[in-house]
Structure formats: structure tokens, C-alpha cells
Amino acid sequence: MTEQTGAPVCDIDFYADSTIADPVSAYGKMLDAGPVVWLSQNRMYAICGHAELVASLRNHECFSSAKGVSVDDEINKFLIGSSLNSDPPAHDVSRSITFAPVSPKNLRHIKDRIEKEAEYVVEKLVQKGEFDAASDLAPYLPLTIVRDLVGLGPNGKDRMLEWGAATFELMGWPGDRRDKAIENLKQLRGFLDDPETLDNLSDEGWARRATKLGIEGGMEPARAAELMRDYIAPSLDTTISAIGYAIMLFSKNPEQWQRLRDDRDLVRNAIEEVVRLNTPIRAFTRYVTQDIEVAGTTLRQGNRVLMVYGAANRDPLRFPEPNRFDIERKTIGHVGFGQGVHACLGMNLARLEITSLLNALADRVQQFTLNGPVVSGVNSTIHSLASVPVKVSRVA
Ligand code: HEM
């Protein structure tokens, strides 16, 4: 257990249901206390200042991921080995294998398919006049296209969303939700350990490609199976969260939707602004490998430190008026996709999906109007919305 050796104390419980439902006010309290704070209820240091977080994320020698990035070391045992839960040089070996299908060059091959599906789902929903952006719109592309491209085969495909959510749940302190998440994670472990899993992967899928390359490169089949984690855990929930949040932001800020419709070149930056404000992954941890001082606080070798992407993205020292949604602001340097060696592997895929949806919507929707209460999702790591009911007025 980490002991406090300095830093201002902040008494929010980062994993309380109330903080999960409204992380934004918690981020504000943490930043008011300082760039590095001691979370007395979670008994952990947290780095939340933007400059401090970026420097720490870029210093993977001191802030290691190799012992896992969950707050809970019991859970980390289940996770170690994926790109996310490793350090260079092992990290670079797995990442070089799993990155290829989601590189900008290879995404060109699936761009048309994604755009067509985006047109299809948007046209269908806009025709209805009202829909739920979180549950009807947001999951569509990740579940129809990405899940298919990963290609876990008949025993894995339908479980992918649950396994991903459980992995994210257990990265934090899941409280009452823990038992169910552990059960799911054990089933994922069973899937990865089952020798028949590799034989059943879809022939053209990313999972088949990665595991095959791993084995050809000398990995044991069990190690090669771990490569699939790069796609299983992070590729669905994160993007689903960002899409639902985007529509909530545009509903509440119709002038920003108008700006985007007037100038499609703004789509690219609008996505970064959505990911900055939403920050789908609230925080992961790092293990401190040697004593290091950050903003006047000495973090000790062996401490587990929370890296709070969501707070850093609202640090007023980096983003003036940080809580304002402005699709034209300078978003460069936001940490919604991480920074350093662990920066998001799939960010270009996520951007492609969201770009296709926003363009299809901008062709058809004049304005979004919230049509009922916005309801938060519940996951200890993912900041998401379970319901964003909207009415749309169609372009004449
Ligand atoms: C809006 C969508 C997404 C967001 C906001 C997001 C966010 C992030 C963040 C913050 C990290 C850094 C983790 C760290 O610092 O330890 C990360 C890493 C990662 N992401 Fe994403 N992600 C998104 C979509 C995706 C997709 C679609 C995929 C899969 C195809 C993916 C795969 C990964 C992987 C494998 C890593 C670990 C990379 C490494 O350790 O080298 N992500 N993501």
C-alpha cells in the first residue's frame, strides 16, 4: 500500500459511483489542489496537471506499465503481456505486429466500407426523426465493422464487448460490479488459453494475422494469443463512448454543429476536441520504478500512481476555458489518446469511424435537440453515456 510522502490531499473518491457519473467536477477539484495530489480515499498519488502528466507518460523507464496498468495488482496478473501492459523492448515487439492493420496506410482499404455503413445507419436513424445517440448510433460501426475485422471466430466474437468492458472495469476499483467483471475476465483468460482458439479465428481477421506473425516470429502460441488483447479490450467501448459524447456536445452547442456543417475541414479538429472533453479513458496507473520528484512531490519506487488523462485534458494552464466545447480551439497535445510509447494504437481507426459518422450526419441533420435526460454509463475506467436521446431536424 502506498504511503503519503507529500502532495496536497484531495478527498474525492475517484471510483465512487458519483465520481464515475460526473468525473468533470472531480477533475476540477483535483486540479485546484495541485498537479500531483494524494487521493486520501483511494490511498494513491494522482498526476493530473497536463505538463506533469505528459512528462510522466513519456518517461516509461520511471513510470512502468510492465506490472500492469490497473489499480489492483491482483487484476494486473491477468493483464500483463499485451502492448498496454508491457514496456519496451517487449512492448515494441507486440505493437509492431498489432499496429499494421490499423495504420493509416492500411485503413485506406476499409475506408469505403466504413463510410458506406456510416451512411446506412445515419440515414436509417435520421429518417426516424429521433433516436438514442448512445445506444442506437454509437455502437453500430464498432460492432458491425471493427468486431468483424478483428475476427475472433464463433467462440469470441459475441463476447468481445463484454470482455472489453470487464477489462476496463477491472482497471479501476469496480466496487459492486467486481464479481461479474472477474467472471468475464476469467472467461476471456479461458478463451486466450484454449489451444483451439487459434484454429477458430476468422481467416482474414486481424487476430489471425497477429497470432500467426507472432508464432512465425518465434513466440509460443500462448504468448501469441496475448496479442489479441490489443484488439479485444480497447477497440469498441472507447469509440462508442466518444460517438455518444460527440452528439451530446453538438446537441448542447448547436452553433458548433452549424460551424462544422459550414466548414467540413473542421471535422478533424472537432473529433480531437470531443476526445479531449470526453476523455473516454479516465485514468490508468503506472508503477514507479525509482524515486522521482514530480511538481515537488517525491514518488517512491514501488508506488502505484494514477495517470489522470481526464483531468489533464481540462487543465486551464494548457487549455484556456477548459470546459468550453470549441471545435476550433488548439487541441494539440491533448492526452485523450495518451502520449509516449503507449499512445493509442487504434486512434486512426477511431478517427475514421467518427469522421464518417459526423460527415454522414452533417449531410442530413440541421440540428440535434436533446429529447430526454442524458444518462451516464457505469464503468470504473470508461467515461461514457448510456443514453443520449435526440430529435433531429432534417436538412431541407
Ligand atoms: C476514441 C477512441 C479511443 C480512445 C479515446 C483511446 C484511448 C487510448 C489511450 C488514452 C491509450 C493510452 C494508454 C496508456 O497510456 O497506457 C490507448 C492505448 C491503446 N489503444 Fe486506444 N483509444 C481509442 C480507440 C482504440 C481503438 C479503436 C483501438 C484498437 C484498434 C485501440 C487500441 C489501443 C491499444 C492496443 C493501446 C495500447 C497501446 C500501447 O500500449 O502501445 N484504441 N488508447
Characterization of the model:
The chain is an alpha+beta fold and 396 residues long. It has one domain (9-394): Cytochrome p450, CATH 1.10.630.10. Helix content is 49%, strand content 12%. The longest helix has 25 residues, at 104-128. The radius of gyration is 21 Å and the shape is globular. The structure holds protoporphyrin IX containing FE (HEM).
Q: Largest sheet, described in full?
A: 6 strands, mixed
How many separate structural domains? 1
What proportion of the residues is helical, as a percent range? Answer: 40-55%
Q: How large a portion of the residues is in β-strands, by DSSP E?
A: 5-15%
Q: What ligands can be seen in this structure?
A: protoporphyrin IX containing FE
Give the overall silhouette: globular
Please tally the β strands and state the result: 13
Strands in their spatial order, largest beta sheet = 1-2-3-9-6-4
Classify the fold: give the CATH topology.
Answer: Cytochrome p450
**Termini Cα gap:** 61 Å
Q: How large, in whole angstroms, is the Cα Rg?
A: 21 Å
List the helices and strands and how they pair.
Blueprint: E1 9-10, H1 17-21, H2 23-33, E2 36-39, E3 44-47, H3 50-57, E4 63-64, H4 73-79, H5 90-99, H6 104-128, E5 130-132, H7 133-137, H8 140-150, H9 160-171, H10 178-193, H11 195-200, H12 206-216, H13 221-226, H14 229-232, H15 237-252, H16 254-262, H17 267-278, E6 284-288, E7 292-294, E8 297-299, E9 304-307, H18 309-312, H19 347-364, E10 365-370, E11 375-376, E12 385-387, E13 389-394
Parallel strand pairs: 1-2, 3-9
Antiparallel strand pairs: 2-3, 4-6, 5-13, 6-9, 7-8, 10-13, 11-12
Helix pairs in contact: 6-19, 9-10, 15-17, 15-19
The structure holds protoporphyrin IX containing FE.
The site of protoporphyrin IX containing FE (HEM) has 29 residues, from helix 14, helix 15 and helix 19.
